[in-house]
Design brief:
This protein is α+β, with helices and mostly antiparallel strands. The chain has 2 domains: 2-31, no CATH class; 42-188, OB fold (Dihydrolipoamide Acetyltransferase, E2P) (Beta Barrel). It has 6 helices and 8 strands.
Length: 193
């Protein structure tokens, strides 16, 4: 009986200190800290002319604001051994070693395209993912390039549905089909019939 009382006391203390994982203060708890960042609306004007300082993956970059940005609708192969790469290999039938080579090629292409350049970021319905990472459509205004579309058009990514962010989904889908048909980019290395 004493163990249950001690446990109940710890749970009550944790709730009082704000460790409750409810999403509404009205239910007696406090929102988890990460929910503030995800739900907060950002000022789109702050991202009209921002520099990309580092390409982390073929579809993710670091901005000069030190924020991470994922390109909406773009899914490129992982070059590092991750559970995502393993899953992609199982789904596509492409060996992990080939996905690694493809991932490295995509990173190099993305670096040439955007690293150390100023971009304009357009946001859709959901501006951040569940981890607080920005999600956006990236444009190189001086070169008149829509980066998300260019990665898919050149065959360096598949176009993925990124609900609720679907503004350019039809365009991405068409570009992906065309790139695969032409064996463009990474698709020249591996075609699944």
């Amino acid at each position: 009986m004493k163990n249950w009382l001690v446990l109940a006391g710890i749970v009550c203390l944790a709730a009082e200190l704000g460790y409750a994982q409810t999403d509404s203060p009205k239910r007696g708890g406090h929102p988890a800290p990460h929910l503030y960042a995800v739900e907060a609306r950002i000022d789109p004007e702050a991202y009209r002319n921002v520099r990309i300082i580092e390409v982390l993956k073929g579809d993710m970059v670091r901005l000069e604001t030190d924020e991470l940005l994922h390109f909406i609708g773009v899914n490129s192969p992982e070059c590092q051994k991750t559970s995502k790469r393993y899953g992609d290999s199982k789904i596509t039938g492409i060996p992990e070693v080939v996905l690694e080579v493809m991932g490295n090629e995509v990173i190099q292409f993305t670096r040439r395209l955007v690293e150390n350049k100023y971009v304009c970021i357009e946001f859709d319905v959901q501006q951040r993912d569940q981890y607080g990472i920005l999600q956006g459509y990236v444009f190189l205004p001086e070169e008149d390039i829509f980066v998300n579309a260019e990665l898919i058009r050149q065959g360096y990514s598949s176009g993925v549905i990124a609900a609720p962010n679907e503004r350019y989904q039809a365009e991405f889908s068409d570009l992906y089909k065309e790139a695969k048909q032409r064996s463009q980019g990474i698709w020249r290395q591996w075609q699944r019939e």
